[in-house]
Specification:
Helix content is about 15%, strand content about 45%. The chain is built from 1 helix and 7 strands; from the N terminus they run E-H-E-E-E-E-E-E. Strands 3-2-5-4 form a 4-stranded mixed beta sheet, with no helix packed on it. Strands 1-6-7 form a 3-stranded mixed beta sheet. It is globular and about 40 Å long.
Length: about 100
């Protein structure tokens, strides 16, 4: 499984991780809901379970993904400043290029 984190997102994620007392927490990306081959994503800080794979990214951030959820493979975590400031998670490999 693959995950890409942009430079903007990595900066914000590292700020959040630095504030956490529990240094075992990792970024989890998950599917909030799906319809057909399209999914919507969320993220939180969490600890790995036996149903997860830990993906190390090129930004030195480990990401937890549920191994049996194919719509997570290839997600891209970005942080945008316009039109609204916040995280955006897409999966261009699965035809998801943003909210609709």
């Amino acid at each position: 499984m693959k995950v890409k984190i942009t430079r903007n997102a990595a900066k914000k994620i590292n700020e959040v991780l630095a504030q956490e007392e529990d240094k075992e927490l990792k970024l989890r990306v998950y599917v909030t809901h799906k319809h057909g081959s399209h999914a919507h994503y969320g993220m939180t800080l969490d600890k790995a379970t036996d149903k997860d794979v830990v993906i190390s990214t090129d930004k030195d951030i480990d990401v937890l993904l549920q191994t049996d959820e194919e719509l997570l493979d290839g997600v891209v975590v970005d942080y945008l400043y316009i039109p609204e400031e916040g995280f955006v998670i897409t999966n261009p490999n699965k035809g998801n290029h943003g909210d609709h």
